[in-house]
Amino acid sequence: MHPLRRTSIAIAMSALLIQACGGGGGGGTEGPPAGALAQGVSNEADAPTANTLPSNPAAAGPGGTPVSAAVPGAVYDDTEVGRLRLATFDAINAIRVASGSGALRQNRILDAAAQGHAAYGAANPDQALSDGQTAGRPAFTGATPRDRAAGYAADPVLGHGIVDRPPAGANCADVVRALPFVSTFLWPADDLGVGVHAFDDPNGGRRVHRCILVTGTPDWSSVQLPVAGDAAVFPAPGATLSLSNPAIAPSRLVAVSTYNRAARATAAADVVVSRFELQAGAGAPVALNPSSLPVPLPPGIVVGAYSTPLTAGTTYTVRFEATVRGVPLTKTWTFSVVP
């Protein structure tokens, strides 16, 4: 098998691709419906459940390092699975760089953890969308994401995402562009591992796959972060969305990661939003409605929804103002919509 390699990533995207996760089909022996998403952010060192944040006091204070726009290219085997892993890795980093959260390095321990969990899901379809494993079951590699990433760091903060059976014509690289994976794009992290299980769908007669995404940082106090007062956002600044192309269609959601080198939220109350609005061209600004997603998000990520359809040929401006643990944060950016 020959390795696949990408050159160092230094990406300036003119378009942010978004693929809806889709539905339909599913069931059967391979687990939940096609296009199902599951995602969590966990720090298994502090609690055995997902979606907890580090208890280390340094987590809330100033710190961090500059975000990276370039990392060494990822390398995977030149096989069906390897090609899917590489495409997914590159797609995640493209969006992270464009959004301002920084590129992630390939990490072999996280890669092995992700691939091991992909194998576990293949052997245990009833747990295919869980981030946990049950000892004694086939292909068991560790009960929690932290267990499976043993040797990565003494006290890591890990994120865990799963994409299950993308719709026809799409792959995991397409699906991770959907906003429900905003945590993978905007959550502060330094490293990434990708796992893939490819199989024949017993219900649809087509080749499908499931992807496991594991993000990590070995030291939360020095994780890459935007400068003080700035934020990573989605859609990315300068993104172009299409009303006719489902691969780059608007999702009606806007997200802001308030984590930066001045302050980091450890609870939802740490972020006080005073302005979150969308303006079409020279029109009047419209407030974005607070929105929840079908997956839990860290307290420092704020999501808003717009209720009216977007118009082709229009540039939209997003304005966000808040305080994070009393520290001001202001972000204004634009994205465009084409037919």
pLDDT average, as an integer?
79
Cα-atom radius of gyration: 19 Å
Distance between the termini: 43 Å
Q: How many β-strand stretches?
A: 16
The fraction of residues in strands falls at 25-35%
Structural class: alpha+beta
Largest sheet: 5 strands, mixed
Note down, in words, how this protein is organized:
By secondary structure, the chain is α+β, with helices and mostly antiparallel strands. It folds into 2 domains: 15-222, CAP (Pathogenesis-related Protein p14a), CATH 3.40.33; 232-338, Immunoglobulin-like (Sandwich). Helix content is 14%, strand content 28%. It has 5 helices and 16 strands. It has helices at 80-99, 108-123, 145-148, 172-175, 182-186; strands spanning 3-5, 37-42, 75-77, 105-106, 157-164, 191-200, 207-217, 232-234, 240-242, 253-257, 271-280, 286-287, 289-290, 301-305, 314-324, 327-338. It has a 5-stranded mixed β-sheet. The protein has a 5-stranded mixed β-sheet with strand order 9-16-15-11-12, with no helix packed on it. It has a 4-stranded antiparallel β-sheet with strand order 8-10-14-13. The longest helix has 20 residues, at 80-99. The protein is globular, with a radius of gyration of 19 Å. Mean pLDDT is 79; it is low at 1-58.
